[in-house]
Amino acid sequence: MQIIFWISAMSKHYRIVFETYELSEKKEIPLSSSIIKCGSVDRPIDIFSVGLSHKEQIELIQTSQDLLIQEQFQLEPVDDYCPNCPSSNLVKYGKRRSQYHDVFTDHTVTIGRKRCMKCNYEPACAIKNVIGKTASGDLLRLQSELGAEHTYRESEKIFSWFSRLKRRINNHDRIKKTVEQVGAQIEELNKIETMVASTKPAKELVISVDGGHINTNEKGKRTFEAMTAVIYRPESLVSHGNETRNMLLSKHCSASSLSDSQQQMKSSTIIAALKQGLSPQTSITALCDGADNCWQIADSLGPLSASMTRVLDWFHVSMKLHNISLPEKLKTKLIRVKWHLWRGNVDNALIRISELIEACPSAYKIRLKKLESYLKNNSDKIVNYRDRQKKNLVFTSNLAESTVESLINRRCKGQQHMRWSREGLNPVLQLRATISSNDWDQTWKGPVAILEKILML
User: Fold this and answer.
1) Is the pTM of this model over 0.85?
2) What is the pLDDT, as a whole number, of residue 404?
3) Which uninterrupted H or E stretch holds 65?
4) Which of 15, 132, 315, 410 lies 20 to 30 Å from 358 when distance is taken between CA atoms?
């Protein structure tokens, strides 16, 4: 395709031309030429008169793609003989029209049919049979990304805005199906993955594990818990300009909503850690909120590493303290509890809590007793947070990011009426975890390519 400008005595004009040609001994032999668009070149008078409008851009893509795709499918196949009758060549036998859908446009492609006149064998001539699917890989990727980030109906609207019309290929049911299929393929790849991207072994890794409760559509139940984890190297955590919140330059995530005794979650977490450089010489710092299922997931990396330091996430500790309301005269004692915990003095903190339980009215005792039990159960994971902060060592997950917020809440809890099943949510989580990891741009073709091969069977 080329753009040609020419100037007359009165005005300047342009035309956009689609040409095909053959290269023979470095010479161009013209085959065909079509004018896609032409018009006058005028000086812009406002923001609406610069270049081509949105509608004109879509029309340009439509026409260009129509011509290019048709040229591609007019090429004769390499094998032009019958596999059943080797001595018999295939002969032309009419044409077939097929639908093909790209990111912004839909196309009807005419493909020539061929047949063996001896055994009536016909090679595939429909687009779905030739390439496995009627949608482009880029469209499948965008459907996956939008469907993982937004509700399926919101994704349908976004596609309509950019394409300037409603397209059946982008209705919410198709987007839902794409997300489920691609997410399922990611899940299968995680099960059988033996080749992990070549990564320099990490001296240290940090893993943060957390869970989030999702409203369920299962009868007799209100919610179920989905688990998430993020693994990164400490040196990947850097300050973001003048903002107090830091950012991660490199990370890998895992997630699961299945009720399978954490098997999928553990295996996908191990794969994520290996991609970050986990080796027998790696020291791991594990940050969890104190729940047993979180520690179990983090502990799955223990046998593959040199050592593991378990740290009760300070963010969750401080939030539990913050959520306890006490009479004004007792608040100072609660501050002393936090003071001791910040310095890793769990025994002194427990003494202060016992004193508070004795001194406060009965209405406040329940939360204090729960806090006491929480600290006792995780006493061996309470460290000197103040010392770790001075040494620039990680002690809280909010320095990385809230994995529950990024992987679960934004997509699954944005609207209170949303209800999920474990099996229905899991492909979405697999897709969101992969997109949130740093190698999505390099790996997205794998699940899509496998999906196309499956559809061709």
Assistant:
1) no
2) 67
3) helix 54-74
4) 315
